[in-house]
Each structure stands twice: as structure tokens, then as C-alpha cells.
Amino acid sequence: MRPTTVTKNHPNNKADVAASLLKACTSLRHLKQIHACIVRSILHRNASLASTLISLYASLSSSPRYTHLVFTSFANPNLSLFNHAIRAFSKTSSLCAEARSLYSQMVCLGIRPDNYTYPFVLNSCAALNDLCAGIEVHGRVVKMGFGFCVPVSNALVDMYGKCGELERARMVFDEMSERDVVSYNALLGAHARGGVDMEDASILFEGMLGKNVISWNAMIVGYVNSGDLAPVKPDAFTMTAVISALAQLGRADLANWIGSYVDREGIEQNEQVRTALVDMHAKCGNMEEACGIFEKIPRKDVFSYSALITGLASHGHGVKALEIFQRMLAENIEPDGITFVGVFTACCHAGLVEDGMNMWSEMVVNS
């Protein structure tokens, strides 16, 4: 008997090819092209591919249009499709109401939510600050037997904390038979938002075995909000991570608190700590402070230079950024990709586009 072969037109083979293409997709333009091919084939009703499309559109496009398009093409969406759509919408604050609406729709259709559904629905309730909806979802969590699930319980703690219900958050936390670092961070975050009960938060923090940057951030934000940062005692390594994380918030008040705290508490100000401080102040727009700290770094490297150059360029100080860049070259410190991004931005702000293009050409030739 002649062995059976799978031809290139076989539906399953096409689905595998489409799945592989989607897995490798990194741009919205390519995603649209792959989606168009899927629609033209018999695969546009493949729920697995549709779920992947929804996830990719959510990550590659800021518009909900394409996610809606894929989801509504199914008259009877299954649990996986609902989960992917709810997850996609829950990640954008302006679409959280849509995520919750989809959850209500799936319940009405008799589709049973699972442990993947509830965390995203609860995240949406938290983003909308809708305590009543959160309590209702909590009731269904208990009724459907998902109260034991750690990610679901973590989402409940987080939701109650963000809705200002610290006691409820603590109750869910205390009832958990198993906890992870996310559980602790969720409760620490609940304490930190109002800067209240920081003594209890400190006890909780000290009992944690796996503290991470999020844990430290929560404690520092909590003490800043309460007006007392003294109880927090991280070392230089931890402080570097905390400062780097806080830099992403762009809050000048926190930047000033942390800068004062590092000085006041005598934390070792090595190159890494000072570079992190330069980056933090630069991202918060406090360029005078960033420049002052930069000058105190005894052995400047590509990271400290790049942090200052990028900060100066981002805040319209193009000429100053280029001066620092020339100083970097004079000290024989080799620029990296981040440095050049800052330099090109500086050239644009300073009206030196031609100089920027020349540097770009040089970089391409020397790479």
C-alpha cells in the first residue's frame, strides 16, 4: 500500500503553517497580511488561530478594532476565544468595560469561566474602580470553586486593594492556603496606595522570603505616601533595582524622596546607584539634579553617559546632550545603541539633522 502523504493543500497542514507564521510575527503590517491569507482560506473559522490573532492584535495594535473584528466573526465563540478577548481588552484601561461586558455575555451563554478568565475580569473591575462588580465576581469565584486558585486569589487581593478595601484584601489574603510573591506584593500594594497601616505592611514585608523590586517599590511608595521613609533599609544592589523601577513612574516627588533618602541613610553610592539616580531624575525631567549626580560619578561608563545624554535629548537640551557625547568620545568610551538613539534625538532637537545623518552613516560603516 502506498504511504499516505499530507499535501500542501490539506487544511491541517495549512493551519500548522499559519500558526507558525503567527508565532514568528512581530509587526502589525505582517499580522494583517497573515490575517488576510487566513481569511481567504478555509481557516478563518479556526478557533485556535483566531485566539492567536486576538492576542497578537492586542499586543501589536492600540486599536480594539481588529480584536473586535476577529471575535465577532464567530457566531458561537468558545471559552478560549472569550478568554483571549477579555484578556486583550483588560490590558487597556479604556476597554476594561468591554472586557467586563464580554464576561457577562459568556456567562449568559452558559459558558463556564475558568481560572484564566477571572484574573482578567477582576483586573478590569479594579481598573474601573467598580467594587460592586468585583464583589459580584468574587461571589461567582467562590461558587464555581476557584477560591483555591492562587492567581485568582491574587487578582482578588489586588482588586480590593485598588478599590480601597484593605480589610477585604487582607481577608482574601489570610484565607489563601498557598501564597506566592505576587500575593504578598498585591497586599503590600494595597497598604502602599494610602500609606496607611504601614506597620502591618512592614511586618508582612519582613516575613517575605522572595522580595523583589515590586515589593520594595510598594514599601517605598507606602512610606512616601505616609511621609516616613525611615523604616526602609535596602542595600546598594537593591536600591539600584528600586531606583530603576521607580524611574519608569516618572514621578518627580518620588525621585526627590529617593534621592534624599539615599543621602540621608548613607547608602553606598557606587557607580550603579548613581547611574540609576541620573536615569531616574532625567526621566522625571529634573536635569539639573541628573547633571549634578553625573559629575559625582568617579568612573563614568557607557551606561552613565547614555542615561544623561538620553535624558538631556528627551527634554529638549540637544546642544548640551551633544556636548556630553563629545566628552564621552574624548574619554575613549565607546557608545552603544542607546547612546546613539539619544544623540540622534539631540540632533533633531538642536536642528542638526545633517550631523545626525553623518553620525548614522559612520555608525553603519563601523558596525
UniProtKB/TrEMBL annotation:
PPR repeats lie at residues 78-113, 180-215, 301-335. Transmembrane segments: none annotated. GO terms for molecular function: RNA binding. This is Putative pentatricopeptide repeat-containing protein. GO terms for biological process: RNA modification. The lineage of its organism: Eukaryota, Viridiplantae, Streptophyta, Embryophyta, Tracheophyta. It comes from the Eukaryota. PROSITE patterns: PPR. Keywords: Repeat. InterPro entries: PPR_At4g14850-like_plant, PPR_rpt, TPR-like_helical_dom_sf.
